[in-house]
Amino acid sequence: MKKTLAAFGLIAGWMMATGAQADIGVAGNVGTTGVGVHATIPLNPDMNARLGSSYLGYSYSGNTRDLDYQLKLKANTYEALLDWYPSKDSSFRLTTGLAYNGNKIDVMAQPNAAGVYNINGTAYSSASVGQVNGKVSFNKVAPYLGIGWGRSSEKEKGWSFSTDIGLLFQGSAKTSLSNTGCAATATVCAQFANDLARENEQLRHEVSRFKAYPVLRVGLSYRF
Question: Are 143 and 169 in contact (CB under 8 A)?
Fold first, then answer.
């Protein structure tokens, strides 16, 4: 992680040095990456650099073939982006860059109405085998590719809007499920642990669709 943050620090330093003589704009934004802020640094008439961060947290329900889950997503990203404008008369832009990706999901398995986990064809009483918790994580460095609209240098003053549509390529999910508080016999606890390992594979399959995280953002800024 230290090497990753150092690399992003070097990128940020280069962008700030390159745009030292330019007007730096700041915009707030909201979207699938959460609530965030971006600083825009004009590099030349056709290209801007952007540095930003976003945070999102919410809970939702999901399931695999065997178990229901309560999931809590925590999306936390730090981005270093480059915007290229193909036409000087348009605000349309092509964007690429890198993000430090802190996205993760905390999961908690939910027993059915009878208080039972049904895993791999076997019924386990949650009162006997305890709780099932887990985590889902992704690559810490994620490339970004997208399009958008908005050119901070278009107006000398006043409000301006921007949008981003793209994908954050955060890689294959890493999942882990663990059991705490198993009060059943040693044989049952061992069997439950084995079935939980198979369930972990199902969970990994279910979250594989998040390999490319969709980004849709709208931003608003004001230049005095």
Answer: yes
